[in-house]
C-alpha cells in the first residue's frame, strides 16, 4: 500500500489541496493549515469557514466565512482579504481567468475584477453557488428553479436557464460548452450553452456533494452513490443518451469524495468509512490507497504532477498519500 503522511485536526476538513506543491488544508473552524515541515496555522475566518476552493487560475486558495470576508491564501502563507460582504455570510467562492473572483452572500452574487472593483448581482432568492466561465467574464449562479448567466462586464439582462427544483451547486465544463448544476433532488442537471439543450443526470440514491472533471474533460466524476459515477462529456452532446461509468462499487458504502488524476484516466474515490481507492477508467482496476478511518472522507485533491493525493475527513483525519512509494 502507498505511504501516507498522516495529520490530525480538531474538526471537519472543508478542502485538501496543494499550493506550489505543498499540501494545504482548510478547516471549518476558520483556519488554514500548512502541516508539512512543522505546522503553520493561519486564522482566516472568525466564527467559521463556510466554503473553500482552489483557484487554479491564480494558484491560490479562496475561502469565505461567517465573518463576511473573502480571503485568498497563497503558497507562501500570505493571506489577502480580497472582498467583503459586510455582515452577510460568504457561502460560495470561485476563481476565474484574468484575476477575477466570484462569491455569493445571501441573495447576491458578486464579481471582483483584477483591479479590485466589485460588482453586485442581486437575486430574488438565495444564491446557492457561483462559478466563472473558463474564458471571458461570464458568471453563473445556482438558484431555486435553475441557473442564471451574467456577462459580468455589462448591464445586459441575464440568461435564465430554468429547471424546476432547488439547485445548490453550479460549474462549467473546462471547455465552457456545458453548465451543470447540482440539485437537492439527488440529481444533476445540465445545459449545452450553444443552444440551451437540457441534460438530465439522475438515479443517485443521495445528494451529490463532490465532483471532479477528468483530464481533457472526458468525464465528470461525482459522489452520491455506492460507486463513483462518471458521466461522459467527450462528444458534442455530452452525456445525453449515454449511461455513466460506475467505478469502485463497495456494496452499500457511499462514495463521499472524488478527485480525477490531473493527467491519467484515473480517479481517487473516498468513502463514508474513510477508505480511499484509486480506480482506472479503462479496466476498472483498483488500488487501495487508505484502508479506512473513523469518519467519511470529505475532500480529495491531487498535486499538479499527480504523484501526491491530499485527503481530509469530516472528523479531522487528514493526510497525504504518495502513490509512487512502495
From TrEMBL:
Highest taxon above the source species: Bacteria
InterPro entries: Quinoprotein_ADH-like_sf, WD40/YVTN_repeat-like_dom_sf, WD40_rpt
PANTHER family registered for this protein in UniProt: TRANSCRIPTION INITIATION FACTOR TFIID (PTHR19879), TRANSCRIPTION INITIATION FACTOR TFIID SUBUNIT 5 (PTHR19879:SF9)
Name this polypeptide is given: WD40 repeat protein
SUPFAM superfamilies in UniProt: Quinoprotein alcohol dehydrogenase-like
Species name: Aureimonas pseudogalii
